[in-house]
Amino acid sequence: CRTSERKSRGSKAETWSRGAAKEKTLECGQIVWGLAFSAWPAAEDEDTDPACAMGLPCLVLATGLNDGQIKVWEVQTGHLLFSLLGHQDVVRDLSFAPNGSPILVSASRDKTLRVWDLSRDGRQVQVLSGHVQWVYCCSISPDCSMLCSAAGEKSALLWSMRSYTLIRRLEGHQSSVVSCDFSPDSALLVTASYDACVIMWDPYTGEQLRTLRHVPLHSTLDSSSEIHTSSLRSVCFSPEGLYLATVADDRLLRIWALELRSPVAFAPMTNGLCCMYFPHGGFIATGTRDGHVQFWTAPRVLSSLKHLCRKALRTFLTTYQVLALPIPRKLKEFLTYRTF
C-alpha cells in the first residue's frame, strides 16, 4: 500500500489552513469493503499530524480489504500503522469502540468477528464464532457494553464487549438481517432485513418494541426491475436519537421519526447500499453500487427537555435498573421507550 497526494487547484483552496488543500489517496491494492474512523490521543512521532503534536487527537482510519487484511492508517500523514492478519475472507465491516479506546471489531465473510487491541500492537484478542453465513455488519453500543452483528441469517447476535460471550439471538425477521445500529444512549437497537422491515429492540431484554414496514411507492419504481423492490440495505440512528434513516432497493432513502410508524421524508436514489448520519446531524451520506457518495439534508429538531433527560439517564442506566426505580409506571414506560 502507498499514499499519494495532489494539490487542489484554485485560489480558494490556497487560502485554507496549512497551505493548499490536498486530495489524499490511500492505495491499498485491494478492494476496500469496510471503513471506520476513530480519534486517538497524540502520537510522539516526527511524522505525525501537526495537530497531534499540539496535543489534539489524531484521526485514524481502518480499511477492510478483499483479501481479509485490515490496514489501519493515520489519515493526515497517510502513515500505515497496522496490518492486521487473521480473517480468511473479505472484511465486510469495521467498528471502533465509541469511547475512544483503541479496540476495533471486524466482521468478515469467513463467518467470524474478530476483536483487535491496537494499543497492544494490533493483537487479536478474541474470535467470535456463531454465525453460519457471511457477517455483513457489526455495531458497538455507545456505552461499549454490547456488540451486535448481522449476517445472512434471520437473526442478529448480541455479544458482551466485556466477556466476549453471546448474550442472546434476536429473532423476529423473516429474511436475512443485513444492518444494525444502536441509539446514542444504547437503550435501543435497530436491525434491517431483506424482509422489508426494521425492528426496534430493547437490547437489554431482547423485547421487540416496534416494527417499521417498508411499503413501496409504485410511482417511483421501474416495472422492468428484477430486484425485490422492498429489500432493505442499511439503517442508522440520527445523532440525537430521534430519527432513523433507511436505504432500500425500491430506490428510496427514507427518514423516520422515532415515535411514528411511517416515514416523515423521502428522497429518490438508485443503487443504494448504505447510509450514515453526519456526527453533528443535519446531513446524511449514502453510498451506492456505482461508486458514488451522495449527501442529503436531514430534518433538524430541537430535542425536548423530556428526551434530553431520558437520553442522559439511559446513558448509564440499563432497562432493568430503570424498572427497579421507585417511580411511577408511566415514567418507567417513557424511560424504557415503551411510549414515545
TrEMBL record:
Entry keyword set: Repeat, Ubl conjugation pathway, WD repeat
GO biological process, one term: protein polyubiquitination
Pathway listed: Protein modification; protein ubiquitination
InterPro entries membership: SOCS_box, SOCS_box-like_dom_sf, WD40/YVTN_repeat-like_dom_sf, WD40_PAC1, WD40_repeat_CS, WD40_repeat_dom_sf, WD40_rpt, WSB_SOCS-box_domain
Domain SOCS box, chain residue ranges per copy: 304-340
Intervals holding WD repeats: 61-83, 84-119, 128-169, 170-211, 225-259
PANTHER family (alphabetical): WD REPEAT AND SOCS BOX-CONTAINING PROTEIN 2 (PTHR15622:SF1), WD40 REPEAT PROTEIN (PTHR15622)
Protein name: WSB2 protein
Species per Swiss-Prot/TrEMBL record: Elachura formosa (spotted wren-babbler)
Taxonomy of the source species: Eukaryota, Metazoa, Chordata, Craniata, Vertebrata
Gene it is expressed from: Wsb2
